[in-house]
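Q: You know discrete backbone vocabularies at least as well as I do. I have my own habits and do not want them to colour yours. No explanation is needed for now; the record alone will do.
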Amino acid sequence: MATTTLDELIEQTRQKANVVDSNFVLDPEIISYLNEARKQFRELVVTADDSYYQDSLDFSIGGQPLNIQALPSTFWKMRGLDAFAGDSVRQREILAREFRNRFDPGIGYYFGGDGNSIVISGQSPEQANPFRLYWTPKPLPLAALVPGVTRSIAHTAGDGTNAGAELIVALGQFSAADVGGTITLASSGSTTLDGTRTILSVVNGTTIVGLPAFPVGELCAVETTITVVSPSNHARTFAVAGGDNQSSGYWSLANGNFGPADVGAYLTTAVTGTAYDGTFQIVEIVSGTLVRVTPAIPGSSGALAGTASISRQPPDTESSLDLTEDNFSEYFSVRAAMVIARKKRQDTLVAQLAGERAAIEDRIAALSRMRQSEPQQAPILWGRRGRQTDDFEV
């Protein structure tokens, strides 16, 4: 389901801050304000109603020193910790305890000194396996798509269109990444050939189909200039098979169909051998089947199988709001616009936006009141929950 995009939020922010046609603030700065607003929004929502943005992690531990569990990479806040004592029926809540009390009877937890783990403490805490951690993930930052590549193609004798209305350019280096982009011809000697068209499909590295269609049987003059602008939102997925492999940052992918437009895009792999799974930025196109990426994985992988995809969204970022945020989408542009208005010292506008912000925050707070009006009942999880005691539960 489509939700408000980052581009739309930027435009809304500029309108509210009266900087639509101004360079007083640039888009990257607005994006930083929107991301701060996103953090504040999540804080407000989970404070009003903790049923939002809840995730869980099931894990087991061993005896000390194996009583440590790494936290998820997107961990933000802990909701609770339950133990199941080896089954899914008896369930109890594990409470935090101070480090100095870590060997007291019963079971508790504290956070590891690295800030990235949780430690289950007590006497033989592994006897309460498995555990379930309830937690809130931090919001991923909003980020703009990586812009498409603009490139000029040198003219070669024989460039032009064929009887099938296809454009043939010997040095085109066209690839799947060009589909949806535009190609512009100028000074070709033909008014019907000159102009900008959308690249509808790529037949091969030298031949494309355009929209509107190219004229039939036209040759490009020596003075012809050819410019290709690739789409910034282009994405594709293909199979990794046969002899595909990775060697010190160079990925050989027979189905890659790489071209100049892929420079700067991201290659994401899901292949046999998780050591080679990940997201890498393409920094060089060696050929239509070979690219160099960063970060590079040392050594050679041998033959790989699985899937790979090309995208222009930076990893671990998003380009639109989620469904919950979209219900309050104006909140983000209002908060971002307030920062800009303060920088411009427009006190009247700041006061106006503050009123809008307060009204939206009242709506968010109403989430809690709506939940309180519902019939109340004990939470139902895996089984009944009990109060922590040294004798397991009561």
